[in-house]
Amino acid sequence: MYLSVIKVSVPVAEVVGVEEGRVEILPRKSVEDTDKDFTVFYVKRSSSGSSYGLLWRLGRIQFSCPSRVLRDQWTKHLRTALKTHSPLRPNRLLVFINPFGGKKKGRKIYHSLVAPLFELAGISSHVIVTERANQARDHLLKKDLKGFDGVVCVGGDGMFSEILHGLIGRTQQEAGLSENDPTVALQPCPLHIGIIPAGSTDCVCYATVGVIDPVTSALHIIIGDSQPLDVCSVHQASALMRYSVSLLGYGFYGDVLAESEKHRWMGPLRYDYSGTMVYLSNRSYAGIVQYLPADPLLSSPRDRTRCLSGRVYTHVEGRFRCVSLTCMSSSCPKSPLGLSPSAHLADGTGDLILVWDTHPLGFLKFLYRHTSTQDQFDLPFVEVHRVKAVRFSLPSEMTNEQKMATPFLCGLCCSKVPAKSVWNCDGEILSSTEILCRIHGQLVRLYARGIEEGAAVHNCGKENDKCQMGCTLIK
Ligand SMILES: CCCCCCCCCCCCC/C=C/[C@@H](O)[C@H](COP(=O)(O)O)NC(=O)CCCCC
Ligand SMILES: Nc1ncnc2c1ncn2[C@@H]1O[C@H](COP(=O)(O)OP(=O)(O)O)[C@@H](O)[C@H]1O
Ligand SMILES: [Ca+2]
Questions:
Q1: How do residues 242-298 score in pLDDT, each as one tens digit?
Q2: Ligand nearest to the CA of 103
Q3: Where does the UniProt annotation place the signal sequence (predicted)?
């Protein structure tokens, strides 16, 4: 069903709201209350383009009718059409704002850019500004969630992770399933998650929407877009450690996170500073990686694998610069195509990236390729595997003391190299090194739609109109 107005065709699914009179919403609401007019607000794709996906803006069309009666009929029918046409449009949302995420602008972003759009769309929201870490997670685990269609987080990947843990935990509790059992088939979460980006990396938003833009994300929420997402569970023995969707990284990414936590005051820049320091400290770590390939056809009786828990895992052992597992591309503004550009959001698999120990310039080349369109896997010391599960352990020749010791991380000043790294799990440090990871297909749903056709990507990651490097358009 389409609304046609001389040159503009708007799918009803992309109508944001209908108001009587001549109405403006952003930057400030103004209403000229005329009898025969009404205003339709809709999703308008911005022509200025963006670094990956398309920017969405609030479009506005004014209609004039011959009579008030006709005007009222139009507005009534349009509002009914919105409800029946898009059943996933939320009516009521629970919103958590992390006031300390990213550049600490979460509250302002929500109140000035997002709340007016929710109001226009007739969405009622219950807003909680968090006062401590894990408040959102605990709320979702314990409080009454009746009447809410979805949960929105205003913050970064860490804040999204809180919502993820709260909703997955709550769903399993209600289904009577034990999250500590690594073999259990987890129940998908009924509530949708919306992300208003206001963090440092904002990778989950970028990889599922294609831009870091609060208005675009708010519009995806309003029209009830739905994007399923794979989730990786991380266990140690028979205890759940955490869930991950973007980056589960040992070695380089673990060290960068541990180092960056000391410099939180720098805001998002902490990752650039810590990345440089950790790169210069030139570390590699011993480890054993066992993985279950996603495609069973890939295994054969001669593939030198051994059987664990009745399933066939492939075994590799050695020294690694980094071991990373991601359920999605994990693209972000720093890396516009991501850690694994061809990874799928909802195919029930993850991509395991093994970067073997190599000389510092080789590793720099690998890292640098994340910022361009060059294939970061086309290097002799890099392997990538599509997997269903991964086990990581430390070599048996490491003493128990080395295995247990909390790794210390210093910059260039210290010549002592720690025997082990830490795991970066979507921006949180895991307390265990030896872990079992399993991918659960489509465990949660986001108010998003993946990267839209027609989105533009430059190999420098800059916006179309800002690209100064003669980059080629690759998509
Ligand atoms: C010579 C140039 C080197 C550039 C290297 C760029 C590599 C970028 C890969 C980024 C992958 C990001 C995966 C996302 C991880 C986030 O979940 C996590 C937490 O985010 P937030 O809550 O918003 O703080 N972010 C990180 O762990 C930061 C990794 C940065 C590594 C340089
Ligand atoms: N009120 C709060 N005070 C301190 N920490 C918080 C608060 N609310 C949430 N957090 C925590 O802050 C961490 C980082 O949040 P996030 O929004 O991801 O920002 P960033 O992207 O800058 O890391 C998350 O792990 C979250 O649990
Ligand atoms: Ca996947």
A1: 999 999 999 999 999 999 999 989 988 999 999 999 999 999 999 999 999 997 565
A2: 2
A3: none
Question: Which CATH architecture best describes the domain 92-225?
Answer: 3-Layer(aba) Sandwich (3.40)
Is any ligand 1 atom within 6 A of the Cβ of residue 256? yes
To the question of domain 236-441 being in CATH 3.40.50.620, the answer is no
Which is the closest atom of ligand 2 to the Cα of 137? 27
Q: What is the pTM of this model?
A: 0.89
List, by residue number, the catalytic residues. Answer: 157
CATH value of 2-85 in 3.30.70, 2.60.40, 2.30.29, 2.40.70: 2.30.29
| Strand, helix or coil for residue 449 | coil
| Ligand 1 atom nearest to CA at 249 | 27
407-444 pLDDT, tens digit per residue, is 545 545 555 678 899 999 999 999 999 999 999 999 99
CA of 328 to the centre of ligand 3 (A): 5
| Cα(440)–Cα(185) distance, integer angstroms | 8
Task: Decide whether any atom of ligand 1 lies within 6 Å of the 157 Cβ.
Answer: yes
Name the one residue in this structure whose structure tokens are 């069973």: 296
pLDDT for residue 13 is more than 90: yes
ipTM of model: 0.95
Give residue limits of the domains in the chain. 2-85, 92-225, 236-441
| CA separation for the pair 290, 285 (Å, rounded) | 16
State whether the beta carbon of 158 lies less than 6 angstroms from ligand 1. yes
Atom of ligand 2 nearest to the CA of 427: 23
Output DSSP code: residue 395.
-
Neighbours of ion ligand 3 (CB under 5 A): 230, 327, 344, 347
Structure tokens given for 13: 């699914």
Angle at 319 between CA 315 and CA 322, to 5 degrees: 90
Which of 22-31, 174-183, 235-244 has the weakest average pLDDT? 22-31
